[in-house]
Specification:
About 30% of the residues lie in helices and about 35% in strands. By secondary structure, the protein is an alpha+beta fold. The radius of gyration is 23 Å and the shape is elongated.
Length: about 110
């Protein structure tokens, strides 16, 4: 699911024998690589979201696959997220400070 509530279907086909690998999103091919017989990382965008698929070779000659969204990279969407988080943090601190000030004033005048 992206930030706008749209669902994206990401799939991966990997033939360990030949090493051919294909990544697709919403029935469209995003990436093709040949002779993938060792660990490797693949990055691609879905809308404005940077996604990473890690292909890791196991000791038993099999493979494991990991999909994650990179929210640390310097992309326009991540910059927007960071500025939004800073704004919410400032608002939260202001609300907490106002609440503590109100409690302090109530204790001062009624104690």
């Amino acid at each position: 699911m992206d930030d706008f509530g749209r669902q994206h279907n990401v799939g991966l086909y990997h033939a360990p024998g030949s090493g051919n690998l294909m990544i697709y999103c919403n029935a469209k091919i995003v990436l093709i690589d040949f002779l993938v017989k060792a660990s490797k990382d693949y990055s691609f965008f879905i809308e404005e979201e940077l996604c990473i698929i890690k292909v890791e070779k196991a000791e038993d000659n099999g493979f494991s696959y990991n999909f994650k969204v990179n929210k640390k990279a310097d992309t326009p969407l991540n910059q927007l997220r960071e500025s939004r988080e800073k704004k919410y943090l400032i608002y939260s601190l202001i609300i907490i400070f106002a609440f503590l000030l109100l409690i302090g004033l109530i204790i001062f005048f009624f104690a």
